[in-house]
Amino acid sequence: MTESSATKLLNGDACRRTLNGKNASKNGYVKNHCPFQQPQKYRRSGEKKQNATHNPSLYKKPFVESFEETPLLVAVLTYMGYGILTVFGYLRDFLRHWNIEKCHVARERDEQKDFVPLYQDFENFYTRNLYMRIRDNWNRPICSVPGARMDLVERVTHNYNWTFDHTGKVVKDVINMGSYNYLGFAESTGTCADAAIEATQIYGVGVGSTRCEMGNLDIHEELEELVARFLGVEASMAFGMGFATNSMNIPALTGK
C-alpha cells in the first residue's frame, strides 16, 4: 500500500508503518491500543477536522434515477402466466392429495400426522409447481473455475426436473453471467490473485479477533479514511458484514 492522505487516522495522527505505536509483525502493523479507547481530541463545533473533506452540498443534489418502463403487453402476459401456473398448481396439488398424481416432495408419514408438520404445503407451493418447471435453467453444476467462461456438466431429466442424471459430457466455454466471481477472486492467476498473495504475506489470512480487541490494522483505518473522503463526510466506520452487524453494531449506535 502507498502512503497517501488516505493513510491518516481519524484522530489526526499519521498512520505510517515506521511511527511509534505500531508493532511490525508477520500479520502486518497492529496498533498497540484499541481505536475506541485512545484519547480523543475534542474539538469545538466550529472547528473543522483537518483530514476530513466537508461537502454538505453532496446530499442536497437531486437524485434522479430512470428505468425503462415495462411494456403493458409484457406485464399482462407475465401476470397471466403466473396466474395460469398457480391455477394448475392447485389442481396438481388436488390430484396429489388423492394419489392420482405421483408426489415427489418430502412429506410426513401417516403415523406422524398428529405431530407438528415439518413441511408446510403452501410454503412449498412455488417450489413444487412453478420453480420445478424451469429448474433445468438454474443450479447448473460446473467443472471449472467460475471465470468469464466456464464448463458445465451436461445433465438430463426424465421426470420433469425433479431429478437429473449426468450424461458424462461437458459443455465447454459457456459465458458466465450468474456468478459472484465478478472481481475474479476465484481465478488462480491474474491481478486479484497476485494482490491476494501479496496481502496475505504481509497481513496473514485474518486478524483472528474483533477490531475493538486486537484485530485493528492500519489498512482498516486507511479504508475508513478513504470511505470518509469519498462520501465527503467527517468520519466513517468499517466492519465485517454478517449477523454481528445487525445484532451488535447497529444497536450500539442507535436505538429504536
From TrEMBL:
Keyword Iron applies: no
Entry's transmembrane regions: 72-91
Pfam family, one: Aminotran_1_2
Superkingdom of the organism of origin: Eukaryota
Classification via SUPFAM superfamilies: PLP-dependent transferases
Cofactor(s) this protein requires: pyridoxal 5'-phosphate
Keywords, sorted A to Z: Acyltransferase, Membrane, Transferase, Transmembrane, Transmembrane helix
Keyword Transmembrane: yes
Aminotransferase class I/classII large domain segment(s): 172-254
InterPro entries in the cross-refs: Aminotransferase_I/II_large, AON_synthase_class-II, PyrdxlP-dep_Trfase, PyrdxlP-dep_Trfase_major
Similarity comment: family membership: Belongs to the class-II pyridoxal-phosphate-dependent aminotransferase family.
Protein name: Serine palmitoyltransferase 2
Source organism per UniProt: Xenoophorus captivus
Origin organism lineage: Eukaryota, Metazoa, Chordata, Craniata, Vertebrata
Name of the coding gene: SPTLC2_2
